[in-house]
Design a protein that fits this description.
The chain is an alpha/beta fold and 171 residues long. It is built from eight helices and five strands, in the order αααβααβαβαβαβ. The protein has one domain: Rossmann fold.
Amino acid sequence: VIYSGVARQMVQGLKYQDRTDLAPWMANWMVRAGAELIAEADLVVPVPLHWRRFFRRQFNQSAELGRAVAKLSGLPFSPSAVKRVKLTRQQVGLERHEREENVRAAFRVLPDAEIEIAGRRVLVVDDVYTTGATVRAVAKALKRGGAGAVDVLTFARVLPGDFRADESATI
């Protein structure tokens, strides 16, 4: 869905207002939209939060979506396959090149997970795709960790012409 209107409200409700009850509804739409990706996937991995951000928020919105996508699709869910090893500032308000730099080397596949992802097709789940910097960094870490292929499924997409870093409160 396009990141505007009700879809934007749902993402912000999930992410900032503890509306984890929205995740299954959002995942239903994701499963329908991503049916081709899901059919080829071996497991679902969410974009991880750094432990400090997780501690403040008490949940990972991408993990909530990923868990629901995995449940609906019958795929294994691996919430700890990738770790955010670098505390990054939030991507909100950053220009495209700043987003890329912000998440560079921020993710790593944990040694225990290398066996689980080796040669497998991993479906990375996130809430919003803005510039793709975060999911590209996660995909790079997964490929370095041995994944055979990586696909990405997000609930919403910021259209390229709609991305403006100065709208930090809305993206």
